[in-house]
Amino acid sequence: MDKSKKFYVTTPIYYATGKPHLGHLYSTVLADVQARWHKIQNINTFFLTGTDEFGQKVAQAAEKANKDTKAFIDEFIPAYKNLWKNYEIDYTHFIRTTDTYHIKAVQQWLSDLMQKGDIYKGAYEGWYCTPCETYLTEKDFEKDVKNPLCSSCERATQWVSEECYFFKLSEYQEKLLQFYKENPNFITPKERAAEVVAFVAGGLQDLSISRTTLKWGVPFPGDEKHVTYVWADALNNYITGIGYGQKSKEEEFQKWWPADMQILGKDIVRFHAIFWPAFLMASGLALPKKLLVHGWIKVGDQKMSKSRNNSVDPQGLYEQYGADAVRYYLMRQMAITQDGNFSLDDLEQKITSDLANDLGNLLQRMVMLADKNGISEISARTWTNQEKELKEASDEMESVFRKEMNRGFCHMALGAVWKFLNQSNAYFHQNEPWLLARSDRDAFHRVLSATCYSLRAAAILLWPVMPKKMEELFLRIGYPFSLDVNHVAVIGATWDGVFTLQKGEPLFEKPELKNQELDNVEESTKIKEEKYITIDDVIKVELRAGTIIECEEVAESDKLLKMLVDFGEQGKRQIFAGVKKYYSPDDLKGQQGVFVTNLKPRKMLGQESQGMMLTTKDAEGTVAMVRPGKNAVNGILLQ
After folding, report:
1. How many other C-beta atoms are found inside a 10 Å radius of the C-beta of residue 606?
2. Does residue 249 sit within a domain?
3. Which CATH number does the domain housing residue 411 bear?
């Protein structure tokens, strides 16, 4: 591990009032992927996560359950730790804000700020949101509104009037604005940064940081009537979790702070982007380098939440699809810059198309083809221009991936990997190694070798997202993997070395195959009926020969090619076909194929497809267009 560099990443800490839901998993996987991305570069890493266990919301949930508050919280901790284990979350430390060291550190922090004059005693009157544990400011609702709703969760607030201690937040307004100006990438994405800057520029009020009407909280130092406001307690977990306030861990704290990336949802950005930096400024501590603020996961048009009864159980997803597939879907489909819609159908489609077809099938076909031809070791060859172009594409993938991961845009980084995998698949298909195995053994070895290098490069970058599956892939191609080296540097190195191939099961199982297996079990107890069609059904389908006279890629699609097909007296038609992985436009121009011409036209990416090209697959899984007999007349009806 490179001790000269470090990376410290945090998740928000989660209210321990129930089992973790998919939103919790999303934030935590984001942090785990970032930690693993740095680990695979041999960078020393600390990953902190945990639970937020004080405050009115927690106390009310325990009271409703008729249980002691601490005992109530303790029941949920195994659910978090077990789920994180299932999903391969490799955190360094799991903090609980009821931990004694955290409580003592928060009390010392408060005492220090009182001595500096940043905390004073006063009285608070105003609207308070219990679910969000937040005080509404005058900017959060219109003046004459009675019982305003919370500006974050849109639930009812309550009027609070009590003695409390205040933190002089107003004195840090200009310092915060100056910090945002000097650190434009502090809040990512920029839309969230603009919201924060506008709020602070509109004026800050001093912040109430204690309660007298609540007993469940960190006891306020020097005043037994008060407990600490939950956000003043909770935000400090990011420093107490790495040793702040513990004399025996001062060196540890200095090593890791400031945080390099703090991951959080957009609903708590105000606390992290305003309160937290102001607390740190008051304490004379460095500020985090980046706040990565993600959107909500929605089901339909609504935010996923327990209160709406539309949350998705991540344990159920794990049992049905496995950790790596769900991790991939969350990282690829949920863009940091906006809310993301979760759909089981979409998840299954991504597993099938991206994981099983694009990645897993390329590995399986290459290894099985090598085994069929008695090859278990693959070494580097003299490369042609094709392989050199593939190597350049590999280097470009790594460059784009690095840039996007450093920004925190995992979905964009994965897009670069899949662009390269499409190029690798196209290279494999265009060279037809199953034919080279009989006609040109040297070229056959070259194609297999270049494919191994491509798979290795993609798998290295995918390891942070799908660690178990990529370690399986490394094993299948004989690539030694440990975290003692910088694997990302290997991608840009010269293609040289030996791969030892091993047969095995496909990396990813298509969801429909799982369902098919269940169907087969049920059908085995029934008498099956053959599903015949009649001659009348057959004659309804018009199959005609046609020549492709124009063909181009569809930029918005990883799979589609747009063709103009000449059907002779029947005219010319625009037809889309999902064969981009197998053919380039030049491969298809001038080629004659078989098409369904009386299929109802349908919209594809806003354009009309006026037919369907017929394709087939060989034993190796290679897709090829179906061709008519030699010199068929364009437009002729095949019978």
Report:
1. 6
2. no
3. 1.10.730.10
Indicate whether 576 belongs to any domain.
yes
The one-letter amino acid code at 142 reads: E
Establish if 545 belongs to a structural domain: yes
Largest CA distance in the chain: 96
**In the chain, how many domains are there?**
2
pTM of the model: 0.77
Using the structure block, give the residue that is written with the tokens 């992290």.
272
pLDDT tens digits, 321-380: 999 999 999 999 999 989 999 999 999 999 999 999 999 999 999 999 999 999 999 998
Domain assignment of residue 405, given as a range: 344-500
292: closest CA among 276, 272, 275?
272
User: 405 Cβ partners below 8 Å, 6+ apart?
Assistant: 34, 37, 413
Share of the chain above pLDDT 90, in %: 72
List Cα–Cα distances, 210 to 215, 263, 269, 282, 377, in angstroms: 11, 26, 21, 17, 68
Whether 571 and 496 map to the same domain: the answer is no
Q: What letters, b where the CB count within 10 A reaches 16 and e where it falls short, cover 537-575? A: eeeeeebbbbbbeebeebeeebbbbbbbbbbeebebbbb
Kindly state whether residues 370 and 445 are assigned to the same domain: yes
Q: What is the model's pLDDT at position 41?
A: 97
Amino acid of residue 180:
Y
Pairing label, strands 43-52, 2-10: parallel
